[in-house]
Inverse folding.
């Protein structure tokens, strides 16, 4: 596990395009993705973590964002993406990536970490549950409802 740098743009592009294709999307294009990565890899509020196999090939990544929380009065980490190549499924790569992301959040002084995942992704929900994530919020004495939003251009205000 390692923190990605600008030198990892090809590795991340390959992994993120595979993730995009896995989800059945055709956007972002490769050029759009590379442009976004150039911005995000130098953004102090964003980190990418990469898993490599024994031969040095990229096998998975996590994108993590950081923001100040009014409620905890500290940084909060948000795991935005987790993807592991299909050939590396069920080998602990996802668990290692998330564990590494949690350690990085702790090293920055984050008091909370959240995860963005599809509620129908049973495999991801199981992994996050085993690592202590829950939709129940002890801070608010009960459940928490996550509301999904459409693109802003589609919202009626």
């Amino acid at each position: 596990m390692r923190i990605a740098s600008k030198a990892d743009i090809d590795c991340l592009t390959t992994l993120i395009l595979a993730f995009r294709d896995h989800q059945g999307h055709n956007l972002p294009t490769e050029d759009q993705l590379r442009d976004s990565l150039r911005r995000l890899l130098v953004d102090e509020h964003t980190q990418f973590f990469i898993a490599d196999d024994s031969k040095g090939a990229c096998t998975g990544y996590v994108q993590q964002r950081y923001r100040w929380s009014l409620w905890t009065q500290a940084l909060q980490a948000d795991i935005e993406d987790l993807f592991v190549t299909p050939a590396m499924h069920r080998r602990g790569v996802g668990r290692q990536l998330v564990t590494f992301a949690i350690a990085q959040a702790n090293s920055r002084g984050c008091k909370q970490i959240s995860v963005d995942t599809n509620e129908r992704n049973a495999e991801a929900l199981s992994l996050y549950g085993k690592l202590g994530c829950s939709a129940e919020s002890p801070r608010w004495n009960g459940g928490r409802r996550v509301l999904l939003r459409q693109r802003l251009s589609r919202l009626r205000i």
Q: What stands out?
A: Helices lie at 9-22, 30-40, 93-107, 122-130. The CA atoms of residues 84 and 93 lie 7 Å apart. The chain is about 30% helix and 25% strand.
